[in-house]
C-alpha cells in the first residue's frame, strides 16, 4: 500500500450513552475526545445512542405490531360512525 494516503486505522472505544456499555474495536472514525481505559490506554472516544446492548431488537424487548393492542380495530371503532355512504 502507498504510504500517507490511508486514514489512521486504530483502536477506538465506542460508548453507548443509554447504558454506558463500552466496546473497543478498530476504526478510521475521527474524533477529538479520548477516554482512559482501565488498563491504562488512552483511546479515541466515539459516543453512540444505541448499541446491541440497548437496541430493542437485540435485547428482546421489541414490540410486535400484533401485540400493540389492535391499532386497526381502534381506528375502525373510532371512525365507524363516519363511514362511507354507498
Poorly predicted regions are none
H/I helix tally: 2
Q: Span between N and C termini?
A: 73 Å
Helix content: 10-25%
Average predicted confidence as pLDDT: 84
Radius of gyration: 24 Å
Task: Give the tally of β-strands.
Answer: 4
What would you call the structural class?
A: alpha+beta
Question: Major β-sheet, in short?
Answer: 4 strands, mixed
Order of helices and strands: EEEEHH
Main sheet: strand order: 2-1-4-3
Overall form: elongated
Any overview of this molecule?
- The protein is an alpha+beta fold and 86 residues long.
- The protein has a domain at 1-60.
- 14% of the residues lie in helices and 27% in strands.
- The chain contains two helices and four strands.
- The chain has helices spanning 56-59, 71-78, and strands at 10-16, 22-27, 34-36, 42-48.
- The protein has a four-stranded mixed beta sheet, with no helix packed on it.
- The longest helix has 8 residues, at 71-78.
- It is elongated and about 70 Å long.
- The N and C termini lie far apart (73 Å).
- The model has no long low-confidence stretch (mean pLDDT 84).
Write the layout of secondary structure elements.
Blueprint: E1 10-16, E2 22-27, E3 34-36, E4 42-48, H1 56-59, H2 71-78
Parallel strand pairs: 1-4
Antiparallel strand pairs: 1-2, 3-4
